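sry for the spam today, last one i promise. struct tokens for design, 309 residues
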């Protein structure tokens, strides 16, 4: 086994047996990117992410202290969404609102469109994060429209305001991106944003993996919220699988035969023949006899005679 590659992926938190299995399949000289893709495809995760599946007992943390322990159970948290087959959704409210407002207006209607899209799909856990100062009246330098939507979403326990305050006339704002990534990571959910959070990726290697694999980008087309059908690229999962806790693997599709109806391989052809779906699987010789209207039994007797000669 390539010891340097083994050590590298062990440091990332992957299990030794998974790494060895991938290196056996791909070869010892496989590129690190290819090994990482294969580990992800197998469903292998860094141990820190795997531990999320086992909720830790409730712990009290001193106010103001930071804890790196993943998956803490929050006081008063509703765990009813854990039975759902769909992943929790965490929406970057500022990113979505400014995107819908063409980067000029904070459009609260854009947030509502995104929330409605996920509700219609059946997601039960949806959280939107918006800075607290967006409660302030619209100003010329930071216009906001349909502000009442924020109040409605807050009443529905969907919208969460990140803290902000004024000190000597200057606004002090907490970093809302950190809230978004942290909650999505702890809930093992999806981040809805067109932001790449590069600073947070550099800050925490586990967050880097999570952001790369769980970031759902989107577009607004004529007031319609539209995520891509292939969130991780053409060779990645479909949108339905991306948003599901238990993805459904597609059936392996066979390549159509390049010769079509002119193919002479019969039932030995390894390619797909849609025209032969409802036909009996005949050998090449039997197919030729059928075309020339030679009785099947007679053909079999001729074969036996030829073999005996």
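last one done:
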């Amino acid at each position: 086994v390539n010891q340097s590659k083994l050590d590298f992926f062990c440091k990332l938190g992957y299990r030794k047996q998974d790494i060895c299995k991938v290196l056996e399949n791909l070869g010892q000289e496989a590129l690190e990117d290819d090994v990482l893709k294969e580990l992800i495809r197998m469903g292998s995760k860094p141990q820190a992410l795997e531990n999320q599946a086992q909720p830790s007992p409730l712990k009290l943390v001193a106010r103001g202290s930071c804890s790196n322990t993943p998956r803490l159970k929050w006081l008063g948290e509703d765990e009813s969404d854990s039975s759902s087959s769909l992943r929790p959704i965490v929406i970057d409210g500022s990113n979505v609102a400014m995107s819908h407002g063409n980067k000029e207006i904070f459009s609260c209607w854009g947030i509502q469109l995104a929330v409605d899209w996920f509700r219609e799909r059946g997601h039960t856990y949806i959280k939107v994060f918006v800075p607290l100062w967006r409660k302030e009246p619209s100003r010329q330098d930071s216009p906001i429209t349909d502000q009442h939507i924020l109040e409605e979403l807050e009443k529905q326990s969907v919208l969460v305001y990140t803290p902000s305050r004024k000190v000597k006339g200057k606004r002090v704002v907490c970093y809302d991106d950190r809230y978004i990534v942290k909650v999505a990571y702890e809930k093992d959910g999806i981040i809805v944003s067109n932001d790449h959070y590069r600073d947070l990726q550099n800050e925490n290697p586990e967050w880097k993996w999570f952001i790369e694999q769980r970031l759902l980008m989107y577009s607004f087309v004529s007031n319609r919220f539209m995520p891509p059908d292939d969130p991780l690229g053409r060779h990645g999962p479909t949108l339905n699988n991306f948003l599901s806790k238990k993805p459904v693997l597609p059936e392996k599709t066979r390549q159509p035969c390049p010769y079509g109806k002119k193919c002479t391989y019969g039932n030995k052809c390894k390619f797909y023949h849609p025209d032969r779906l409802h036909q009996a699987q005949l050998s090449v010789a039997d197919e030729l006899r059928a075309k020339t209207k030679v009785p099947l039994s007679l053909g079999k007797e001729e074969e036996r005679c030829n073999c005996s000669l």
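The mean pLDDT is 77. ok im logging off now
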